[in-house]
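Hi there,

I know you've been waiting on this one. I reran it after we fixed the sequence typo, so this is the corrected version. Both the input and the resulting structure follow.
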Amino acid sequence: MSTLHIKNMVCDRCKKVINDELTALGVEVHSIELGVLEVDPKSVDLEAIAKTIEAHGFELIESKEEILVERIKVFLISIIDKLPMQRKHKLSTMISDELGKDYSSLSKVFSQREHLTIEKYFLRLKLEKVKELIQDGNHSFSQIAAMLDYSSINHLSGQFKQETGLSMSEYKSMINRDRKPLDKIV
């Protein structure tokens, strides 16, 4: 089995696109998870795979640091996807436990590669989720705050305003609301 690491996979649709495209290319895909692809080594033409996935906004990655950063991102995205968020431990502990590495070394690699701290990246992920939930219109601001594990609506409101320059009400009333795709958050 050959393991390939792919950058910018952020959702189940990403997995489907990769699977469909590689299957059409004749690659025997054994398993696919966000950021990781297991293929039959006999069917691997790395150049063709790289070209195919790049056409869809993905990228093969090989360096240990890039793989580590991508694993951190995928883990953080998985936390945001499961609402309501239920963190029993500090984020640093959760990441360290998930990756089996010391948080300070993970944080250092992430910051060097992304020019952003893990905490700031996670905050930006959360705020994109807030925007999504506001656009859906199914939840009050208080419910959104609770779902994303904020201590209060005021805490969420303050962070939202600080990062976006808008109050959540102003954002909700906008006609053209800007949201960033999760793979473009930096």
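Quick highlight: Strands lie at 2-7, 29-33, 36-39, 59-61.

Best,
R. S.
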